[in-house]
User: Fold this.
Amino acid sequence: MPDSQQTIILFDGVCNFCDASVNFVIKRDKRGYFRFAPLQEPKGGEIARKYGIDPERLDTFVLIENGRAYRKSAGALRVARRLGGLYMLAFAVIAVPAFIRDFFYDWFARHRYRWFGKKDACMVPSPEVRDRFLTDDPLETTPPV
Assistant:
């Protein structure tokens, strides 16, 4: 399926908080709606550039949905809405102006490595969810490192 028809979460693959967030989404996304790509990997960088996002700037969370990129709080809130249940109530925060939401988002993003740490390499997805991670080669049998 082409990237433009998938719902993709682009994330900082070495950030422990980001990794935990992706695992949080995977656990609750029972329908397998979301696909994932670390910004540090070639495929994640390619998708980011396609939407005018610099993959070297790891201070943002990006949701690609219906051919449109949602960054920072807008992306995170749209993910919460898709998870359903009580998580979808978080989408009400979308009523707060983006400059206010993103002020807090940016503040948190600046501190996330200090608070949660970072890894030397991107996460390696488990075999059960490996097919939900986008790679450069759809026939690749080993996950990106």
In short: The first helix runs from residue 16 to 28. Helices lie at 16-28, 42-50, 72-83, 98-116. Strands lie at 7-11, 34-38, 62-65, 68-71.
